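Page 37, top half.
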Amino acid sequence: MALGTLADAFPQGCSLPVGISKLFRIWNAWNTLPFASGCCGAVSWKKVARTKRDGGVKSPGSPSRPLPCPKDFGSNGPQIQAKDILEIVYKALVEKGYNPVNQIVGYIMSGDPTYITSHKNARSLIMKVERDEILEVLFENYIDTQLK
């Protein structure tokens, strides 16, 4: 059974995860294209996808499978906070000899994770936090220390 929109994949009462609205737009746009549904004599993309064995691209799997409720993602224990992640990233950048201020500002402005070193898993940690959350932590700290 195909889904009408990606939002239909979430159980009733679950809010949609923050930060993937672009994915929803792409998903909805893809499902509304004539060739994606198999009309107009075109072959569905599911039937055209090849496996690695055939020398083509690996099949993307079943997009109609329901996604887990976002509320279940954080149930594995305490979540690390943005300020703790910033501290870890800052220390990793200093250890590698980078200017942490320039590197973090570059990441926040561009969204390019290569501004952050992979040393001590800093790059994957900082990508777990939205950039606007990082800005909130930085501004809260600045306001608390400089303006009050």
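Page 37, bottom half:
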Amino acid sequence: MAQIFDNIEQRFTDGLKGYLSTNGVTRVDFCVGYFNLRGWNLILNEIDALTGDFVEEQSSPTPVHRTCRLLIGMHQPHEELTRWLYSKEDHTPDNNFVRQQKLKIAADFRRQLQIGLPTKQDEWTLRRLSAQMKDGKVCVKLYVRHPLHAKLYIAHNPNNYPHPVYALMGSSNLTYSGLTGQGEYVDMLISEMIPEVGKQGLADFIDVFCDEGFFTPDETSRILEAGAKWGMRPKIHVQELAPSGGVEVGVKHNAVSVDHLESMIDEDIEMLKGTDTIPTGLPGTSFFLNMPFAPARKMIEAGLPVATASDYNPGSTPSGDMKFVVSLACIKMRLLPAEAINAATINTAAAMDLSKDYGSIAKGKIANFFITEPIPSIDFIPYSYTTPIIARTFLMGQEIK
């Protein structure tokens, strides 16, 4: 049966060690993008405990005894080799060129392994790896033709018919952060994804799910700091599942809004006082998932400007009906009708930093509004939560037929 190691509730390290320690497993093959000594140290003893087996390899005319074969696909070759690899010329390298390139690659890889070795443990692991390679137990190969970011771990158990092979696939490289947590993904977000989004100008805001079981406050801070370098302003997902420090992170990074807040505590309300961060409740989520509602009444009584939104998505709120959101704000969050309407209009515009142009009917603002059917008062809007009330709709001053 398939297992999921999410590095949150179930650690990938535990799963990998479990496979390596399974009775009958003789050898392993790993194909990863990145590798470091601290990652290797986590499984070094399990590798040494394997008996090994004979395998056929293209470089040898006879079977070779191996315990672990490790293919690393994201090692960057030096400039001379890169130019040769991508040359359009049809030529075969001579033996001297091949020997020189192998020496350069080995030297580069050794330097990579030795970067930042602050402890005796790291140096000891380097010696152990060197001994394993010299003994032929471990074979490390670098794939340099083009980037190969696979993450595949295979354990061979030849006597376990009909399942002689166990495989783990996922998002974990053979690095310490990859095997023990989601820091590797955060690193990729910061070093690759966010800069690319920034270069292309694809985002004005940056969101992080800072909550129990997801991104930690420290990880959230790192991501928000990376986004800020590209002008992305924080609007973050916090305190849905538990008091998790998300509001504090949002305030620290001057978030435009902090959203969800179903598990908000009194200390969070105090933190928001005197800031420009708008607390945003999502009552549709609470309704659909049958969970507590954000304490909007408490926030208003504390002087905070509360916004509401639909959280329209297929997983937790498959509805974008803002009229229903206004009704829930009154019925479940204990807002008065006028407060609920303000929360869904002018305060929501402020939660997107758009209140200068949107959110209310005023001279100089964008003319987005609707005209209702005849109703007795605005209180009727949340009260009649399933009754259609819109007669005419205008966007940018033009009626939408």
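Margin note: The chain has two domains: 12-180, 183-360.
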